[in-house]
Amino acid sequence: MKKNVLIKGILVLLVIALLTIGFSGCTIIIPPPSITGTVYITISGDWWYNVYMDYTQIRTGIRAGTYPLYDVPIGNHFFEAVDTTGWLRGYDDVTKYITSGENYVYLYP
Q: What are the structural domains of the chain?
């Protein structure tokens, strides 16, 4: 009789453990909100430019056009375009608040 009770107790614990594992796998996971955004920098001009974000060079010797930056942290960022021959030839800057999703920065050096 004691052997029967022991086997039934182990089986009950096993069933409870399997049900717990099964139901915990069915939880809905809500992803956290995005903490980065994508920035499209559009440069207008006739020369070659170096592009900076927060005083760090991110592109070198590029022509006029649109260039994407991915995974830019949310918040204020300082963007600037400087002519490769020096800032006296062509320069523009802008400070922009970046949100999650798509953001557009226009520079006219």
A: 36-107 (2.60.40.10)
